[in-house]
């Protein structure tokens, strides 16, 4: 089964153009399913039935897995079995008539404008790493790009003169997003005064580098954000996408067109972007309740 999983992952990467993080999730989910089958010596890919899949999903539920996690695991199994059926590795698809569990759509956690300003004020711009951190945070909030897109940026992906950043999102889709003066200023300061001190290899293409002079990782960035959130005394739960969510919400609150926000975020479906309209409505209700004398 290990070789079949790898063949499937290669197919998703080469034929479907899925992102590395998605491929890693598929690989991890399928290997866990393989472990479940292996615990019962009589089960295999070929003889797994709908009852086998249901038993696996119930097993995940007993483990305390969230509904969203179970839905993702089932989606991985559906895609895997469709591939196996197409390639004649199995004769039936046991997931065929199973539907995904209904997901509760959680509203994203966002920061207020004042909280964003506190967060962005934390980096010590007297140091090279502080200038880098300031540039990263300003760029994220200015553009709403994903953290994975941020750390994958190369020097050639930004145009400071025109005020644009080019990034490659999910499904290898490329988009160009405008950025504001604050982000441009922070990037100029970082590129002129900080990056040359952090990079030892002049051939390094990465825009943002760590203290070793190589490309910063998602994990490295996540540690940086958590550190500054603590220093800014932000009590809300912070995620790597918090600035992305805040970017979208603040744009819509200030009258931005939802189609334009969809394009900047790189959402394939506008329904994904519409969740931010619910956030803005909830916040308007809060403002009304706190401010209107007869609320």
Automatic annotation (TrEMBL):
It comes from the Bacteria. Site-specific tyrosine recombinase, which acts by catalyzing the cutting and rejoining of the recombining DNA molecules. The XerC-XerD complex is essential to convert dimers of the bacterial chromosome into monomers to permit their segregation at cell division. It also contributes to the segregational stability of plasmids. The keyword Cell cycle applies. The gene is xerD. CDD domains: INT_XerDC_C. Forms a cyclic heterotetrameric complex composed of two molecules of XerC and two molecules of XerD. It is found in: Cytoplasm. This is Tyrosine recombinase XerD. GO terms for cellular component: cytoplasm. GO terms for molecular function: DNA binding; tyrosine-based site-specific recombinase activity. Residues 106-289 form the Tyr recombinase domain. HAMAP family: Recomb_XerC_XerD, Recomb_XerD. It comes from Candidatus Fermentithermobacillus carboniphilus. One of its GO terms (biological process) is cell division.
């Amino acid at each position: 089964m290990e070789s079949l999983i790898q063949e499937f992952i290669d197919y998703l990467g080469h034929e479907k153009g899925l992102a590395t993080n998605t491929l890693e999730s598929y690989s991890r989910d399928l290997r866990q399913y393989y472990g479940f089958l292996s615990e019962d010596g009589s089960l295999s890919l070929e003889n797994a039935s709908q009852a086998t899949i249901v038993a696996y999903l119930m097993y995940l539920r007993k483990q305390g897995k969230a509904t969203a996690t179970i839905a993702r695991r089932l989606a991985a199994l559906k895609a895997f079995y469709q591939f196996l059926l197409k390639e004649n590795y199995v004769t039936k698809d046991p997931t065929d008539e199973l539907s995904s569990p209904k997901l509760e759509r959680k509203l994203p956690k966002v920061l207020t404008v004042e909280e964003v300003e506190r967060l962005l004020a934390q980096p010590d711009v007297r140091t090279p790493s502080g200038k880098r951190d300031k540039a990263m945070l300003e760029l994220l909030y200015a553009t709403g790009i994903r953290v994975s897109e941020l750390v994958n940026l190369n020097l050639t992906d930004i145009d400071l003169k025109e005020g644009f950043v080019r990034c490659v999102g999910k499904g290898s889709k490329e988009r160009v997003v405008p950025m504001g003066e604050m982000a441009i200023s922070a990037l100029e300061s970082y590129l002129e005064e900080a990056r040359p001190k952090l990079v030892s290899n002049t051939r390094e293409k990465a825009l943002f580098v760590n203290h070793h002079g190589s490309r910063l990782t998602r994990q490295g960035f996540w540690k940086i954000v958590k550190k500054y959130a603590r220093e800014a005394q932000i009590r809300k739960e912070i995620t790597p996408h918090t600035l992305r969510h805040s970017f979208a919400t603040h744009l819509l609150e200030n009258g931005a067109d939802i189609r334009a926000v969809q394009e900047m975020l790189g959402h394939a479906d506008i329904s994904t972007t519409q969740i931010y309209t619910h956030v803005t409505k909830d916040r308007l209700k809060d403002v009304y309740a706190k401010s209107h004398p007869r609320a």
